[in-house]
Specification:
The chain is of the alpha/beta class. Helix content is 29%, strand content 17%. α8 (208-220) crosses α9 (255-269) and α10 (284-295) crosses α11 (323-333). One of its GO terms (cellular component) is mitochondrion.
């Protein structure tokens, strides 16, 4: 989906490898196959969204028809699949509902892995700490649904500091935002005197100027704007895409571009360089996590010794439009990942990508699914 600036940042916050998260909603088997087909359920598919199945809110590449082929006549899933996207900004449950409506198939929340989905693994560290979430959509709601107790959107947080955004009076859209903030009950703690313990860029920021200003205030003052410089609180990005394919014909700047801008400014005004952790593709752990989620969709078995287990995947197909994100991520993840590159998004080349070649290049996602089902002998 998106064009990556760097694979992922190693920093003092990343002293441990990111661990896998699992969805309780996938605890039942999605692979409700007929008995004669169960033995064939040894493969799965991960679809990117923007530039592969959708452009904006419009299905592309024959995606509705392609996805319908993964279900049986009864509506049960024939092939385990999920959506693996660096995008986000809304809860997985709502994204699943939107995808179901746009694509005409029943998508469960457990089939949607967004860039910010791994943030739920940080709950133990920040559950009762004040954190800030920014980005398009409803970033604070996303973090609240993950279980974080004291989370504010950057919009709401900034409203408690008079003049923190010196040009807010020139922004026509702020009037409605202030009205919406005032309709909410104030939190039961003093925001202007409590330090922010973590900042989360959940999705693509909307007001770059304001967000860079306020994040710099938070990050260089040990979490309390207006105070003296000190140790930086942890900063997390859901992804690090420089560009991605949206509804406009040419690529749009993504979260990675915002990160570059924030880092450039912060490093000029603070004595220590910006520290951060980036999630999202092509980080290999994202693909390992997708494999773990997909494995929950498979039927379990009992071996000759009476031990329970699950079928392993012979092949996992990553269908994406971005060589540096989707293809490179699948390659770094290694076996059993097989990359398929479509020409409906970031990649539009005639031949395979020279630097990040996919295992297969096709025009559309419908062609990709046709190839997979033929290769796997599924009608």
């Amino acid at each position: 989906m998106r064009f990556q600036t760097t694979a992922y940042r190693i920093s003092r916050f990343r002293n441990k490898a990111p661990f896998l998260f699992q969805s309780s909603q996938a605890s039942h088997s999605l692979c409700q196959l007929q008995p004669e087909l169960k033995k064939r359920c040894s493969f799965g598919i991960a679809f990117d969204i923007d530039g592969v199945v959708l452009r904006g809110r419009v299905p592309i590449g024959g995606s509705p028809q392609a996805l319908r082929r993964l279900y049986g006549h009864s509506g049960a899933l024939k092939v385990p699949f999920l959506f693996l996207t660096n995008g986000g900004g809304i809860p997985e449950s709502r994204r699943a509902s939107e995808l179901s409506e746009l694509l005409g198939v029943n998508i469960l929340p457990s089939q949607v892995l967004q860039g910010h989905s791994p943030f739920k693994n940080l709950l133990k560290r920040f559950e009762n700490e004040l954190i800030i979430a920014t980005g398009k959509g409803e970033p604070a709601l996303v973090m609240s649904e993950y279980g974080f107790k004291k989370v504010l959107s950057l919009d709401e947080y900034a409203s408690y500091f008079e003049n923190i955004d010196p040009v807010s009076q020139y922004k026509r859209w702020t009037t409605g935002q202030v009205s919406n903030r005032n309709s909410h009950s104030p939190p039961g703690y003093n925001i202007s005197s409590e330090r922010v313990k973590g900042a989360f860029v959940v999705s693509d920021p909307v007001d770059w100027g304001r967000d860079i200003q306020v994040l710099c205030d938070i990050l260089r003052s040990r979490g309390l704007p207006g105070q003296a410089n000190g140790q930086q609180p942890p900063l997390y990005f859901a992804a690090d895409d420089l560009e991605y394919q949206a509804a406009f014909p040419s690529e749009r700047l993504g979260m990675g571009a915002f990160r570059i801008a924030l880092e450039s400014v912060f490093n000029r005004i603070h004595h220590s360089p910006l520290e951060y952790v980036s999630y999202g593709k092509p980080n290999p752990f994202v693909f390992r996590n997708a494999e773990a989620i997909l494995s929950q969709f498979l039927p379990s078995y009992v071996d000759d010794n009476g031990d329970a287990g699950s079928h392993s995947f012979r092949t996992l197909y990553m269908i994406g439009d971005n060589p540096m994100v989707d293809v490179e991520g699948a390659k770094q993840a290694g076996h059993p990942w097989f990359s398929i590159l479509t020409r409906t998004g970031v990649f539009k080349g005639v031949d395979n990508h020279a630097e990040f070649p996919a295992n297969l290049v096709v025009d559309t996602v419908e062609e990709a699914v046709e190839y997979i089902l033929t290769r796997e002998l599924i009608s």
